[in-house]
Known about the structure:
The protein is mainly alpha-helical. It has helices at residues 22-40, 49-64, 70-86, 92-112, 121-146, 160-172, 178-198, 205-222, 228-239, 244-258, 261-283, 296-317, 335-344, 412-421, 445-448, 451-456; strands at 388-395, 408-411, 426-430, 436-437.
Amino acid sequence: MQTGSAFRSPPRLLTAPQPIDRLGIVTLLSSLYFLQVWGLIEPTSGLPPFFHYIMMGISLAGILIPRLWQVLGINSAAFVAYYLLHSPLASNNQTTAFFFALVVGAVYLTTVFRTPRHGDMRESVFSSIAGPARWILAGLYFYGIYHKINSDFLDPVVSCAVVLYRTLAGHVYLEDFALGHYGAIYLTFIVEAIAMVALFIPRLKRFGMMVGLPFHIVIGFTGYAYYKDFSTIVLVLYALFLPKQAVDYGVGKIMQFAGGETRMLWIGRMVLILFGASYLITSGMLWDLSKAVPTHSGFVWYFAVYSFVFYAFVMLSMHKPQNTRSDYKLNWLYIFPALFFLNGMSPYLGLKTEGSMAMFSNLHTEGGQTNHLIHGRLPNTFTYQEDPLTLLRLSGPQFNAEYEPAGKTIVRYELDRLLSRNPGMVATLASNSGPFETGTDWVNTYDATNRFLQKFLIFKPVDFARPKTCTH
């Protein structure tokens, strides 16, 4: 479908209202993600508060003016720096965003600053990002399925799927019945498998989005573990699958409904301004920047607006089979999704159990045991998970409250990280011969590793109880 001059207009200022394109959609959605993240991490990042407020302001600019693709680059560069500085991080959604930001940063360094500016530059930038970054979503879905192939995720008594179902049921007045428990477990496998496969088949892409997007919108509404930031970064990755002709068609249809390009652009700009202003007012940020941290109750309706609008636009745009021609070419940037995939293998390689896409999967691979139905730690791999210790007491000038309860079991490397970062702390541990303390003769395995491993390895507390209850 032809949309007149909407996509052939002469160059205009980036701040001038213009029809949105694929890069603009990614900029808008990523700005919504970073707006949340910069607020959520502010209390614990250790960075000056004004840095977070500045980054939230930059993200807000990306929301109000999605054509400012420079916001995508600034947010990505800042987030990569933050992630590396604070690694290792347990957050799976931030790990996903980190690999996406690496792709964006690499594209900006290799494409934007070395390529003469021309009319198709925006599409070139989008294609360069989308090619490798789409496979991050494939890796996310693969491990979203594979990690859950364990006896405890399939057990409705403890399954994380049932925990999410019950949380959602409390919001939308669903009955907490057994059929819903089993439905939540097995629909998780079905939906993620459909989306993972269908998104890469042009004629099934719309079906994949039709099924996959509502799944992430729904879990964003649960309020459990504030899933909205995770759902939003997934929306960003979904946007990378949008064909150009679909976006052109969707914008053209909206233009017809609005009564012309000028009216469409005016309405669109007013809607974005109203969205941003209402968030600043209702959150209280307009008067008190310390209220920058999003909350479930405060952000749920904003999440509803942009997630539903994106879903409606996708369904409007992709109403028919798309061109099967691919704009993506294999290049060195695909190393990033490959590394993301290897990161997800960590629990089975005897490496970290946090930040490995095993979130809410009930997976257990520590101590030479596993609940996975296919395999646990693979033979002849690393042994960092194989030395769990039962912690009885921590004493010293300071301690991590997460490990305060007596009887909590942790991997030795994680205990050694705690001891290394808190000089003077002494741990009392249980053993077959009775309690013993770490002291001057204690060999610290964290200090003995190199800088890369210290920034990479991070472990959950170990739960040997059976069935294994749901944890993050």
